[in-house]
Each structure stands twice: as C-alpha cells, then as structure tokens.
Amino acid sequence: MNTATQSRPVEPGPTTLGTRPLAGRVALVTGSTSGIGLGILESLAAAGASVAMNGLGEAGRIEAELDRLRGAHGVPAAYAGADLADPVQCRAMIGAVQDRFGRVDILVNNAGIQHVAPIEAFAAEKWDAILALNLSAAFHAISAAFAGMKARGWGRVINVASAHGLVASPFKSAYVAAKHGLVGLTKTVALEGAEHGITANAICPGYVWTPLVEKQIDDQAKSHGISRERVIREVLLAQQPNRRFAQSAEIGALAVFLATDAAQSITGAALPVDGGWTAH
Ligand code: NAD
Q1: Which of 106, 131, 156, 164 is disulfide-compatible with 27, CB 3.0–4.6 A?
Q2: DSSP notation for 146-211
Q3: Active site includes 207?
Q4: For position 261, what pLDDT does the model report?
Q5: Residue 141 lies in a domain
C-alpha cells in the first residue's frame, strides 16, 4: 500500500460532494459553443466551476451565451478562441486560460468533426482534418496543461470519444480511427497521471441530440423519402437498443461526476453512454 498517498488529508470544499462540488475549480471545454460541449460546459458551471468556452461561432452569440451562463450559475465564464486543427493555437489556448484563471484543473477535449465516405473515396484532406481535430488537438491540449496539473497534484482529463471509439461502422474510417486513438491516448495519460492526483477518462456517447444530429434527420428523411420518425428509429438509432437520443446534459452529468473526488479512482476508463450500442 502506498501509505504516503493514503495518509494525504481529504481537502475540504471543492473536493467534497454537494450541490456545488466543483466550486473553486477551473474547467476548459473544447468545442463548447454548441451541442455536447455546451451541455458539458453548462453542467460544470452549474456544479460551481469557473468555465472557459472554446469553439467556432459568431462573437455576439458567444458573448450572449457566456452572459447567460454567468447569470444562471454565478460563475466566471470566458471565451478561449482557437482553431484546434492548428497545434500552435491549441497550445496557446491552454496558456490563455491559465493567464485568465490561473490554471486549468479540468480539461474536456470535446471538439470533433465527422465525414462519411467509402474508404476508396475518402479524401485525404478529410482524413487529415479529422485526425487533427478529433485526436491530435487532444494530445496538444493535454500536453500543454499536464505540467500545471502535476504541480498542483490534481487534474481531470475528460476526452469525449464515441461509441466509435469502441466499435466501428463502415464509411467512417477517419472518425473511428481517431476515436479509437483517443481512447488509447486516454489510457496512456491515465497511467502518467495516476500518481499525481490526475485522472483521465473517455466518455463514449452513442447518438446524442445536438443541432448537428437534428439537421441530419431532415436531410435523411428527404433522401430516403421517409418520415422523421422512421429516420430516427430505422436509420439513426438502428444500432442503439434503447432507441432514444441521449441529451447533452446526460453527458454533462457524467463529466461532472468524473471531475469530483468521488470518481478519483476511476481512471483510464472508456465509459459508454450509448443506450446499449456497444453491448451488442
Ligand atoms: P457539434 O457540431 O454540435 O459541436 C462541435 C463543436 O466543435 C462546436 O463547438 C464547434 O464550433 C467546434 N469545432 C469544430 N471545429 C473546430 C475547430 N477547428 N476548432 C475549435 N472548435 C471546433 O457536435 P456535437 O455533436 O456536439 O459533438 C461534440 C463531440 O461529441 C465530438 O467530438 C463528436 O465526435 C462527439 N460525439 C457526438 C455524438 C452525437 O451523437 N452528437 C456521438 C458521439 C460522439
């Protein structure tokens, strides 16, 4: 038994469960101007964390969203803009959040894109773009934030992978490769952080109700010539046994739990939130 670790006193405040278990923590969520990332950002803010938003979007809408979060949850909220396909901007984003808030305690790598095509027709630039954002950006962000987490003896890395980090589907070669890679990166970071109070986990959602998915329903209904309801059941949720979309807030609730000290022994895990998809 590692007695040094076991005898470390339990910190009060931010590390105890309560209505605001993350009060005093600083969280950065990439790709949080929309969808799952925004849901996670809001859940972390509701749990008391100061939050940094990243992602693409129109400046006025981003500022309005930050104002809403500040008002609703009474926490500091700032924007950390960066095109995460660029490693230099990715690392600069971590520096900017550290300058603004003093540190990054909770890093959620969520930004991601998708492209669907048979492998023989899969454009090389699409492959590169997906690998850059869905995998390499997480590496650069973690690499830049890790020294600070180590120095403070506390950190949370939460990577939003996918059911496609655990199983494959046809025509999604880059996405599946990147998400499997992200799960592998998560395990490595978990091992490197284990003795420094840092955990690293991957959340692996199935279909989640986001603007991106909502738009696909109308497109698919048109191209298949079937109703929205049939698209949902027979196309999108065909693989998802519970036949329902998760909500972004459900992913946010898991991220909050992983960030608390109640989850301090959960590390290196890839946690499906997929209605049973990967139980097949
Ligand atoms: P979304 O399109 O609603 O959000 C993507 C976010 O990434 C946005 O904030 C966007 O601005 C940002 N982004 C895109 N390119 C960027 C870039 N170059 N630099 C910085 N930010 C950039 O998508 P979503 O559905 O919320 O997906 C979020 C994550 O969840 C992705 O990693 C996705 O793979 C994963 N995921 C989604 C689902 C789902 O059903 N929606 C399922 C499994 C996994």
Answers
A1: 106
A2: HHHHHHHT-EEEEEE--GGGTS--TT-HHHHHHHHHHHHHHHHHHHHHGGGTEEEEEEEES-EE-H
A3: no
A4: 95
A5: yes
| Helix (H) / strand (E) containing 273 | strand 270-273
Would you say residue 7 has pLDDT above 70?
no
Assess whether 183 and 219 both reside in one domain.
Answer: no
> In ligand 1, which atom is closest to the CA atom of 163?
43
Q: Which listed residue (79, 154, 175, 207) is catalytic?
A: 175
Q: Is 39 in the pocket of ligand 1 (CB under 6 A)?
A: no
160 pocket-lining for ligand 1 (C-beta < 6 Å): yes
Verify that 127 and 265 share a domain, yes or no. yes
Do 231 and 250 belong to one domain? no
pTM of the model: 0.94
Give the residue, by CA position, lying nearest to ligand 1 atom 23.
35
Q: Using DSSP, how many helices (H) and how many strands (E) does the chain show?
A: 10, 9
Number of domains making up the chain: 2
pLDDT band at 17 (very low <50, low <70, confident <90, very high): low
Residues 100 and 236 in one domain: no
Q: Are residues 30 and 138 located together in one domain of the fold?
A: yes
In percent, the amount of the chain with pLDDT more than 70 equals 94
Is residue 116 domain-shared with residue 192, that is, in the same domain? yes
Tens of pLDDT along 66-103? Answer: 999 999 999 999 999 999 999 999 999 999 999 999 99
Q: Write down the pLDDT at residue 216.
A: 79
Looking at per-residue confidence, does 272 or 13 come out higher?
Answer: 272
For residues 91, 93, 97, 98, the Cα torsion angle rounded to the nearest 10 degrees is 20
